[in-house]
């Protein structure tokens, strides 16, 4: 097995045809986020707050710590991974006054080389699906159930 020269960093990006305040709120307010990502949250994202996100269909949860929150600009969290914690950063760039370019970066994966690569690949796919679900929800009012449908055989709660 070859050693990694650099630790993996994942980036998923998408243009959303909605104003930045709506897009930012979709990630901060669990009333909205549950329409395209996790199924339950212990609260809104707020600076310095510890939150728990649940994906009830899979019987899994993640503990989240909000390290930074700049309204309509940036969210920085640490969240629980199978091998430890990693860092996730969202940036929100307004475009034309009615569009927002969202960039999600995940870094700081823990473990050995192969474990970090596996986590990074899973993260890349996961955050890409999250952004696609966000786009459908905000632009068209459709909840696509992408997270639940990604691995239906892994459901523990039908």
Automatic annotation (TrEMBL):
Q: Which CDD domains match?
A: SRPBCC_CalC_Aha1-like_8
The domain of life is Bacteria
Pfam families found in the cross-reference section: AHSA1
Q: Where is the signal peptide?
A: none
- Domain Activator of Hsp90 ATPase homologue 1/2-like C-terminal residue range list: 19-139
Transmembrane residues, as ranges? none
**Similarity remark:** Belongs to the AHA1 family.
Q: What name appears for this protein in its UniProt entry?
A: Polyketide cyclase
Q: Give the species this sequence originates from.
A: Planococcus glaciei
């Amino acid at each position: 097995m070859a050693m990694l020269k650099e630790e993996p960093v994942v980036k998923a990006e998408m243009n959303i045809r909605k104003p930045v305040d709506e897009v930012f709120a979709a990630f901060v307010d669990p009333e909205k986020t549950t329409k395209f990502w996790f199924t339950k949250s212990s609260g809104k994202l707020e600076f310095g707050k510890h939150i728990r996100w649940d994906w009830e269909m899979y019987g899994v949860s993640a503990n989240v710590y909000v390290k930074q929150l700049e309204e309509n600009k940036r969210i920085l969290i640490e969240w629980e991974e199978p091998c430890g914690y990693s860092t996730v950063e969202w940036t929100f760039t307004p475009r034309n006054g009615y569009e927002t370019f969202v960039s999600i970066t995940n870094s700081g994966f823990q473990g050995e080389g192969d474990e970090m690569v596996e986590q990074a690949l899973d993260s890349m796919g996961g955050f890409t699906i999250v952004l696609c679900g966000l786009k459908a929800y905000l632009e068209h009012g459709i909840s696509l159930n992408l997270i639940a449908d990604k691995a239906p055989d892994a459901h523990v709660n039908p």
